[in-house]
């Protein structure tokens, strides 16, 4: 079955746990939990995986294939327990069980007295279900990756309960991270909607906006309470700083001068604030809770930071190139909102005249086309992909630099973290 | 504490300071007085340096609570008021306007995050939990106000609960935090909480009255902004008890100015204003009683501050503006 990997169009890297069949069918192996995985980003199938709540806690393997002979993506669910043993680790399967526990706890944490607030919190869970559960996955894997001692035997109850308590605290970080993330989405996205639906100000619409802002505040306050319960000042400071970074990054994006818009340094700084800070500082928090040294905490931070940057750079590329299945045309939403991303910035280095096009703004669709034309002629897309690959390598290197361990969970999780760095840069969606 | 890297965010923070200067500095005043009121030991002499530095450190931490409280308060104002403006300027959606809204939301978030960092620096979990709960209460109170059913709107209990969340929770829980930082007992912390809670409720009830009656200097006509926004406050709720038909007027809503006049007419005939003032006076008394129940002290600052706190309860209910 590993021979068939060569036929996979996605990648031939050996770290990929993909399995492929011959011909024009691709078998893609994922482990699914009832709350969705990153799978939506890796496949060209547009249908959602069916989630069977009854298999919560079981490790099912779903096979999905898409065929060029069909216009619609088809899928079939197939259970193959025996293949788990031979199968290299899939990052998401490792933490699937935990993620479902987290989701339930989160749900309990955001129950609100007021029904409308509860509805807004539901939105949060719909987001969580439809979203990729990417951050919690990384954080739980990082928590496992930092296990240093040999696994405790069943009789060593004191050690066992300590490690369970640590795990619970690290899970709490994952929950807090999700709450902060969704709070920032609620605040950003709804106000962007206000931007695009300018002038349509029905009371429901405004109340929807206000409720979204309030719901975001609510989530932030719950995150603060959860943070406080960890009784670790450094962790609280770290994650409070993340909120500040999110705000700063969003503001940087809104208020750029012409020079700043065309500066790669400014763009990378903004990207760090907006995307990478949350995951890097949460990784660091995970390490701190585990009582790791400063060096190890920095490695955890570096992993998160480089992973986050790689993720965003590929995001930028995909906004232009779209998915494999489509005709190569991305949503172009960044450029249409006047947001200048890495591919354009690289292209500007080759074609200085592109700068004038950018300065004109992109409200005029013709200007968008001109910019795309330059982009196509340039190495912008490729250089962005290369930069993403660099960051992915740095992330993998950070994991490889962690102190050696003989803990089996740690070994598997580290492999999974490295695998994630590859998935992030090779995804097509 | 609120200097930001990004200039636009810094401007929003300036707004915060303008607010602080123009505002009444009411909350920080109460909190600093409460901090002094809880001084138990005799004043340290100038040579007792160890005790002195400890008490200075405590004072700094309590001041931090006052700062955090202001940040949370202004963050909630930024979030609430700007979106209310969006409500009233419906349809005027220039990019500057929208960016103003978004920037206000972001600035509010920024203040909240700074408040969290400051809270963390106090290294006191209970205090962090208290003040984080306040943010939750502010949100809940605002949501309660926005999403009332007809029955809820006409319920005094619902109104008082909402008022607690929106107005009194911040001051009561910060007072409690002040006491906790000072290492006070649970009983004393509860007394501090009670003071804040009753003071806050008294303050809001008089606010409700003034919205109808306005200032002495004016011709007795208040801004009527509550009722015009469809917010039903204590005077109207009391009036409804005397005149059940007022309920139907309220249910119609107050977009029609004629309906406002009808409601005001009922209000004038009723004891609504007076009963609200009486209720405010009750809460003011409860607040004063809480201060008087504090453990005795011979610390001069404490004695003066307690007197000031009681004096505040009177000012709150006798103000005309």
TrEMBL record, chain A:
<keyword id="KW-0414">Isoprene biosynthesis</keyword>
<comment type="similarity">
    <text>Belongs to the FPP/GGPP synthase family.</text>
</comment>
<dbReference type="GO" id="GO:0006744">
    <property type="term" value="P:ubiquinone biosynthetic process"/>
</dbReference>
<dbReference type="GO" id="GO:0005739">
    <property type="term" value="C:mitochondrion"/>
</dbReference>
<dbReference type="GO" id="GO:0032476">
    <property type="term" value="C:polyprenyl diphosphate synthase complex"/>
</dbReference>
<dbReference type="GO" id="GO:0008299">
    <property type="term" value="P:isoprenoid biosynthetic process"/>
</dbReference>
<protein>
    <recommendedName>
        <fullName>Geranyl diphosphate synthase</fullName>
    </recommendedName>
</protein>
<keyword id="KW-0460">Magnesium</keyword>
<dbReference type="InterPro" id="IPR033749">
    <property type="entry name" value="Polyprenyl_synt_CS"/>
</dbReference>
<dbReference type="InterPro" id="IPR008949">
    <property type="entry name" value="Isoprenoid_synthase_dom_sf"/>
</dbReference>
<dbReference type="GO" id="GO:0004659">
    <property type="term" value="F:prenyltransferase activity"/>
</dbReference>
<keyword id="KW-0496">Mitochondrion</keyword>
<keyword id="KW-0808">Transferase</keyword>
<keyword id="KW-0479">Metal-binding</keyword>
<dbReference type="GO" id="GO:0046872">
    <property type="term" value="F:metal ion binding"/>
</dbReference>
<dbReference type="Pfam" id="PF00348">
    <property type="entry name" value="polyprenyl_synt"/>
</dbReference>
<dbReference type="InterPro" id="IPR000092">
    <property type="entry name" value="Polyprenyl_synt"/>
</dbReference>
């Amino acid at each position: 079955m590993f021979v068939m990997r060569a036929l996979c169009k996605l990648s031939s890297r050996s770290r990929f746990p993909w399995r492929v069949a011959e011909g024009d069918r691709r078998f893609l192996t994922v482990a699914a939990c009832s709350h969705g995985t990153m799978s939506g980003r890796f496949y060209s199938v547009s249908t959602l995986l069916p989630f069977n709540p009854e298999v919560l806690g079981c490790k099912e393997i779903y096979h999905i294939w898409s065929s060029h002979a069909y216009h619609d993506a088809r899928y079939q669910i197939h259970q193959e327990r025996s293949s788990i043993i031979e199968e290299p680790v899939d990052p998401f399967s490792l933490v699937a069980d935990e993620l479902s526990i987290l989701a339930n706890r989160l749900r309990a944490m955001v129950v609100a007295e007021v029904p409308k607030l509860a509805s807004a919190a539901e939105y949060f869970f719909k987001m969580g279900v439809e979203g990729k559960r990417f951050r919690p996955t990384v954080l739980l894997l990082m928590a496992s990756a930092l296990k240093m001692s040999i696994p405790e035997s069943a009789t060593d109850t004191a050690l066992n309960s300590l490690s369970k308590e640590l795990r619970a605290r690290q899970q709490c970080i994952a929950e807090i991270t999700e709450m902060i993330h969704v709070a920032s989405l609620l605040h950003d996205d709804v106000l962007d909607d206000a931007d695009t639906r300018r002038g349509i100000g029905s009371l429901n619409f405004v109340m929807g906006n206000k409720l979204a802002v309030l719901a975001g505040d609510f989530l932030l306050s719950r995150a603060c309470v959860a943070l406080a319960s960890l009784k670790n000042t450094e962790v609280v400071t770290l994650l409070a700083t993340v909120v500040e970074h999110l705000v700063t990054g969003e503001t940087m994006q809104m208020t750029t001068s012409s020079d700043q818009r065309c500066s790669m340094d400014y763009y990378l700084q903004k990207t760090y604030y907006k995307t990478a800070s949350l995951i890097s500082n949460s990784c660091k928090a995970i390490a701190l809770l585990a009582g790791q040294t400063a060096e190890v905490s920095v490695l955890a931070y570096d992993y998160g930071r480089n992973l986050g940057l790689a993720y965003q750079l590929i995001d930028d590329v995909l906004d232009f190139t779209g998915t494999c299945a489509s005709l190569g045309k991305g949503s172009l939403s960044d450029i249409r909102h006047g947001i200048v991303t890495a591919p354009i910035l690289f292209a500007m280095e080759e074609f200085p005249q592109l700068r004038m096009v950018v300065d004109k703004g992109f409200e005029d669709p013709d200007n968008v086309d001109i910019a795309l034309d330059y982009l196509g002629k340039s190495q912008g897309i490729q250089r962005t992909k290369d930069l993403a690959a660099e960051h992915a390598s740095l992330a993998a290197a950070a994991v490889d630099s962690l102190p050696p361990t003989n803990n089996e969970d740690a070994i598997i999780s580290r492999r999974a973290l490295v695998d994630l760095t590859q998935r992030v840069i090779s995804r097509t969606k | 504490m609120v200097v930001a890297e990004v200039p636009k965010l810094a401007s929003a923070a300036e707004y915060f300071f303008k607010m602080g200067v123009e505002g009444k500095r009411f909350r920080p005043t109460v909190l600093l007085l409460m901090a002094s009121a809880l001084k138990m030991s005799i004043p340290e002499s100038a040579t007792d340096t160890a005790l002195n530095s400890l008490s200075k450190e405590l004072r700094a931490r309590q001041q931090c609570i006052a700062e955090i409280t202001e940040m949370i308060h202004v963050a909630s104002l930024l979030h609430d008021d700007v979106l209310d403006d969006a409500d009233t300027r419906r349809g005027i959606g220039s990019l500057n306007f929208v960016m103003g809204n978004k920037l206000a939301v972001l600035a509010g978030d920024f203040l909240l995050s700074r408040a969290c960092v400051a809270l963390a620096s106090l290294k006191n979990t209970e205090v962090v939990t208290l003040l984080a709960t306040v943010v939750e209460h502010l949100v809940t109170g605002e949501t309660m106000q926005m999403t009332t059913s007809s029955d809820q709107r006409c319920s005094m209990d619902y109104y008082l609960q909402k008022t607690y969340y929106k107005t009194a929770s911040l001051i009561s829980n910060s007072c409690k935090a002040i006491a906790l930082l000072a290492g006070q007992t649970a009983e004393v912390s509860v007394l501090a909480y009670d003071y804040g809670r009753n003071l806050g409720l008294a303050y809001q009830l008089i606010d409700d009255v003034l919205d109808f009656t306005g200032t002495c200097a004016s011709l007795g006509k208040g801004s009527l902004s509550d009722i015009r926004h469809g917010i039903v406050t204590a005077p109207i709720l009391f009036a409804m008890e005397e005149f059940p038909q007022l309920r139907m007027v309220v249910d119609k809503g107050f977009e029609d100015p004629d309906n406002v006049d009808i409601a005001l007419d009922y209000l004038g005939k009723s004891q609504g204003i007076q009963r609200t003032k009486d209720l405010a006076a009750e809460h003011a008394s409860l607040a004063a009683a809480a201060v008087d129940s504090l453990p005795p002290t011979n610390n001069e600052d404490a004695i003066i501050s307690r007197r000031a706190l009681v004096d505040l309860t009177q000012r709150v209910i006798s103000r005309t503006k």
